[in-house]
Each structure stands twice: as C-alpha cells, then as structure tokens.
C-alpha cells in the first residue's frame, strides 16, 4: 500500500469514528435536564423518603424537641415520646402530619415542621458502554435518557437498541427494554421510564 493510500485509510477511519461518536450524543436539552437532576433540590411535596434520607423535625417553642433523624434500613425513624414512625414511601408532608398528630397527647397545640435535609435514598446505577459509569445519587425523579446523559452518553461501541433497566422487585429481576435510537428520535417514549431507587441501567 502506498503512503497516500495509508493516509486516506487513516482519514476515513477517523471520520467514521467521529460519525459514530456524534450519533450517540444526547441533545443539549437532555444534558441540561440531567445536570438539573443532579444539582437541584428534590421536590419536598412529591419526593418519597427512603433509607439513608435525613430529615429534621422541629416543634415551635420546643427547642429541645428539634431532632435530626436518619431513615433506617427498615424504613423507620425514631422520635422521642412517640417512638417509631414509618417514613419510607411517604412524603415530608405526610411525615409531618403523622408526627404532629401523635404528639398531640404530649404537647398541646404542637406546631411541627419537617424538612428534608439530605436526599440519600434515590440512587441508581449506569453500567456498561457509557463514558462515566457508576452510581448516581440525585434529588429528583430521573428518566433512563437523563441517566445516560449523566453517565456521559454512550461510547462508540455501545449497542443503543439493546439497553436494559434491571429492577429488583420481590427478590426477582424485572427487565425493562430501552431503545436509545427510538427514544432520542421522539419515538416510543413510553420506554423512557422514571428510574426507581436501586435500578441498574445496563448498556451493552
């Protein structure tokens, strides 16, 4: 092979790689949404608490009753006077209402406030052929497409039509298929499900 032919082959390969790389980039809008999901505080009216989340309970005019609580692995928190309170799966408002109601027999006209200090439970994982695989801890609901954007997008060797979301349900793996090419073109958007804590996005 002559020198000019070698150069031509190298150029063609470089161009091909560039085309492949560009074809799997997420849109600027999705990248912005992914960044927002990482840095924005969770919606306290909708966010459902889970293990490792941290809340703060205050009672008006009762400074000694201000407590910072961590949701335990069994989904409960312990608050003085009333004992265990089920927190997992409930919103901050629901916890506030329950604590307030149960405190009535101990504190007259208890004005209880509960805030979410740190969202720790909503984490998922992205593995396989993405640029930044790993664990992602976010403060608000995130879709599969946004999760892939957080992971830096697909590598040129990824199989965009064969992505899976693995979800543990009752001790059994539940598989959700995700075709990146279809969703990125605005087709079959029902595949772009909202991830649940513990979900694993697998990019082959």
Q: What key phrases describe this protein's structure?
A:
10 strands; single chain; three-stranded antiparallel beta sheet; 2 domains; Outer membrane lipoprotein wza fold like; 28% helix; elongated; wza like fold; alpha+beta; 204 residues; 5 helices
Describe this structure in words.
It is a single chain. The model is unreliable at 4-23 (pLDDT under 50). This protein has helices at residues 3-23, 28-39, 92-103, 144-150, 180-184, and strands spanning 54-59, 67-70, 76-79, 83-86, 112-118, 123-128, 134-137, 163-169, 172-178, 200-203. It has a five-stranded mixed β-sheet, covered by helices on one side. Strands 2-1-5 form a three-stranded antiparallel β-sheet, covered by helices on one side. A two-stranded antiparallel sheet has the order 3-4. The protein contains five helices and ten strands. The chain folds into two domains: 23-42 and 122-203, Outer membrane lipoprotein wza domain like (Outer membrane lipoprotein wza fold like), CATH 3.10.560.10; 54-118, wza like fold, CATH 3.30.1950.
């Amino acid at each position: 092979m002559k020198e000019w032919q070698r150069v031509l082959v190298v150029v063609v390969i470089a161009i091909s790689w560039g085309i492949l790389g560009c074809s799997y980039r997420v849109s600027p809008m999705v990248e912005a949404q992914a960044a927002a999901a990482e840095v924005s505080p969770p919606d306290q009216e909708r966010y459902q608490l889970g293990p490792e989340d941290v809340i703060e309970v205050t009672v008006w005019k009762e400074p000694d009753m201000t407590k910072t609580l961590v949701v335990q692995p069994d989904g409960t928190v312990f608050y003085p006077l009333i004992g265990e309170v089920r927190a997992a799966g409930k919103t901050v408002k629901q916890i506030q209402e329950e604590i307030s109601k149960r405190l009535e027999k101990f504190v007259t006209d208890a004005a209880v406030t509960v805030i979410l200090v740190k969202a720790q439970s909503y984490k998922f994982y992205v593995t396989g052929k993405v640029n930044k695989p790993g664990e992602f801890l976010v403060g608000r609901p995130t879709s599969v497409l946004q999760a892939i954007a957080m992971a830096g997008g697909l590598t040129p060797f990824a199989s965009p039509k064969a992505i899976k979301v693995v979800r543990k349900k009752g001790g059994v793996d539940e598989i959700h298929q995700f075709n990146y090419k279809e969703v990125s073109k605005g087709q079959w958007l029902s595949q772009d499900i909202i991830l649940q804590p513990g979900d694993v996005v697998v990019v082959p």
